[in-house]
């Protein structure tokens, strides 16, 4: 049987240059993603899999994201937070109607799990990504902190995620955040044909 064609890569949005001057002052805010944010989410996920690099596994479309990510209220299932940046301050009380200078620079996707050892729920971070030209500005820390603050607010016991072993910058960032890197644990995965074989077994 012929292999299905990969979906087309998302069109990159016009925006700032690949690098920004170190002195560029940016204001940032985080908001809960909604269905209208799917085009931004799709582009960011595509950029993330290029960075890893895992483009051979990329099959998401805007349609598939729309139909799977927003099926439950936030924090009860999949939740996405988007981080926006702008050279001008965001208003405190009213929405910023002028979005010409507002750029979506990163996201974090997480969902609830259950920690049998703690007898409490927790959050699992499936993906956190900041566009390359906006790194080293504290935006990754802002996104992860938003998840941990929500976990504490809800009485959750832990926030977990995995990191690729070659990504020393991210490992250093995780440790600076106070995370414990668990070298004795190995990730396991059933997917594709193996999942179908065992999922269909009696």
TrEMBL record:
Gene Ontology MF, one: N-acetyltransferase activity
Pfam family, one: Acetyltransf_1
Source taxon at top rank: Eukaryota
PROSITE patterns: GNAT
Record has Oxidoreductase as a keyword: no
Keyword entries, A-Z: Acyltransferase, Transferase
Residue ranges of every copy of the N-acetyltransferase domain listed in the record: 49-202
Keyword Protein biosynthesis among UniProt keywords: no
EC number: 2.3.1.-
Name this polypeptide is given: Tyramine N-feruloyltransferase 4/11
UniProt organism field: Glycine soja (Wild soybean)
Upper taxonomic lineage: Eukaryota, Viridiplantae, Streptophyta, Embryophyta, Tracheophyta
């Amino acid at each position: 049987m012929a292999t299905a064609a990969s979906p087309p890569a998302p069109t990159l949005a016009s925006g700032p240059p690949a690098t920004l001057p170190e002195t560029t002052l940016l204001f940032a805010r985080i908001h809960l993603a909604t269905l209208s944010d799917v085009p931004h989410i799709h582009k960011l996920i595509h950029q993330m899999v290029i960075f890893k690099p895992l483009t051979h596994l990329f099959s998401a479309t805007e349609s598939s994201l729309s139909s799977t990510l927003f099926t439950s209220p936030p924090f009860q299932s999949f939740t996405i937070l988007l981080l926006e940046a702008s050279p001008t301050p965001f208003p405190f009380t009213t929405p910023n109607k002028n979005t010409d200078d507002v750029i979506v620079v990163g996201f974090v996707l997480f969902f609830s799990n259950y920690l049998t050892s703690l007898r409490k729920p927790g959050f699992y971070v499936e993906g956190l990504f900041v566009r390359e030209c906006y790194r080293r500005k504290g935006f990754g820390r802002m996104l992860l902190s938003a998840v941990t603050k929500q976990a504490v607010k809800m009485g959750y016991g832990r926030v977990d995620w995995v990191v690729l072993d070659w990504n020393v910058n991210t490992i250093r960032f995780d440790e600076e955040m106070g995370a414990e890197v668990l070298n004795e644990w190995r990730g396991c995965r059933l997917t594709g044909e193996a999942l179908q074989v065992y999922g269909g077994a009696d």
